[in-house]
Amino acid sequence: MKVMPLDYERLFEPFIDEVDGVLCVPSDATAADVTRLAEPLGLRFPLWLDSSQSLRANISAGDYAPASSRFGPFCDNITGMNWELPDGRVVRVGERVVKSTAGYDLLRFLLGSGESFGRAKDYVLRLRPLCDRDGSFFLTGENGALEQAISRILHGPYLHWFDSVDWLAIQGCVPQLRVTVHCPSAEWKAFADYLSGCAAQHSLNIREEPGSKIGGDGLPDLALKTTPDGVIPLCRELASQNELRCVGLCYTGVVHAYCEEVSGAASKVREIVTRTASRLESNGGDWISRHLTRPIFGEEEDCWVRGLAAEWEAVA
Amino acid sequence: MTPPINAVVAALHRAAPGSRVMTSPAQLAGYDADALGYKAFPPDLVVIPHNADELAAVVRVLHDAGLPICLRGAGTSLAGGPVAAQGGAIIHTSRLRGIRKINIPGMWCEVECGVTLNSLDETLQPTGLHYPPDPSSGPVCTIGGNVASNAGGAHCFRYGVTGNYVLGVEVVMLDGTLRRFGGPSGGRGSWREDWKRLMVGSEGTLGAFTRFWLRLTPRPEKAWTFRATFPNLPSTERAIHGLVRSPSYPVAIEMMDPASVAMVERSPMAVGLPQDHFLLVVEIDGPAALVDARVQQLASILREAGSNDVQFSDDPVVRAGLFKARKAQGGLLGQVSPDFLVQDAVIPKRALAEVLALVYEEAEKAGLPAVTVMHAGDGNLHPNFLFDSRRPGDIEKVEAISACLMERVVAVGGTLSGEHGIGNDKAGYVGLIFGPDSMRMQKAVPQVFDRASQFNPLKIFPERRFAA
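^ inputs. structure came back:
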């Protein structure tokens, strides 16, 4: 049976639904804007690379944030958006419900496309229950022991419940494992006991920083995607060879690299990409940088990209 | 002009000598429908390739022969996905069932498209790792079908759907070339764009999947299952709303309506539930120290919402019993009715009462029974309309109800499918969710990879017809 097709675009209007845990905000909203709307309803949006920057800036800087360890990449936490095509027309992509397999997944494709095919105007965010306690645990000690502790945490039952499990590396400094927790106060002790047990078993020091928020690492100059077991070697390589500050998101296999000085960042990124890209890409990994555009991969991709762009521009 | 079938068969034997080719009506009979079952779409031939190279060779031959190409795993789709809606060839992937690699430190595995979900789970069990998507057809459904339809399941409220676990896909393109999008690392690979995002959920319209790289997670240490009955919908809704916002983080929240409960209770699978009550089955899992502490909190949410009958357990046998009614429901549909049509709408949870009322009203008006289950955490509603396709007028009635239901679902802010895909069953409704510009954007995707719509024609968009 045929139905009458729509003759207009069903664009999203700003809204918040506390039952479904979804919030529609402009793409230039910051963490403060989102928190102001979500927190009174007992909800939060956990994925921030730099909470002072806009959502769009966060999403463009990398597909993953520290809390992606628990909640997945940005694209799994955005259910829909209003998308502005290069000619200024706005279309709806995705839904306001949290699950959809209706048509091609343009939502995730476009979210990962930078501004190749336009840009987001509004996002529908998937929110999560807000708890009354958050903080981080820092584990330090001998490198081999620290790596063993990470492997144990990644394969252990608490992995799903940590907001993030991050390897922090800076040239000349002792590496640290940062584990971020967001939970009801009553459950804090269980997390603390588990991590203290890990630290004791591997002869590591543990320090607790209650109340510290994730999202303070900043927008990375370069985000590299590898496998979970590739994170620490890559962090080490970048910290030692390029003197970069690195945050390795251990479960998602992502390394966020930060240049301490803005000047020269682009050339440093180019040098790293030249050295590492083919190695990462051969295993299905990739890189993203706000300083460097990813090139089209050969004639075939050029044909697909042009094909989509031509069809989408022809929409008018 | 399409060559005669026997010429195509000869070409297939030459190009893929290890493949099995079937053309007799008796051999093809098992391929003319999926689990939806009530409409038959007989293919002209079925090919079972021996491996990925032969699959690629088969695609090349069929492409050259100008036949529609439909990929099929176990055929458990409920949306008319893996059927030869425009005739032509079905490529059955049942022999591509190798689990090629499990990388424990990297927490990923590489599997061929014909691997069944349960066999993957059994293989992973000793490693302590877990692949969470769990559609109810798990014992037989294939990963290829799961990726094609972006399948979900009861536990995806917490763990997410298939697409959340796909790190990479290998695809045979229409010209027979093999392309890899992503891989063990789950990024773009060498491509600028993340093409695997378009491949997942593409319902066999962009290429033929051969293998996947999948993300794995640690297997949960402990789980509790809760079963609660509710005297009415408002109390059930209160419980659902309380559960989804609870820091107890249920991994599954499953609902059955009274008609669904009654169907189970009138069957040999009865478990002693009141037949006029709604049922919720809820699960939490995680580290023992966390989930044990969450049990009473979760039970309180169910009781405070209005249930006088809350049972829960961490014993695997008892837990299976608590989940039994929900698990039995799907299998019983085929026993109590010659045919059924299941919808897969996703709705804002606030709209449950309005949409359910419409389901009951329309079913009653048509004189057809309806039994409804729901992945309540996600708002993914499965009303099942029971009918007899041999009875004149029944098909028209269920299709009219479906159209009416889909219009209401979209009007309340929902969408057509959460985990089954569009197939050809819901293709007529896509005009409800895509405006003119977004429809053009959607239709541009298969145009780029398969301009002639040779892969799985008449799926997703009713106008996607193959012109040889």
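Chain B touches chain A through 106 residues (CB under 8 Å). Residues 220-336 of chain B form a domain with the Alpha-Beta Plaits fold (CATH 3.30.70.2190).
thumbs up if we can close this ticket
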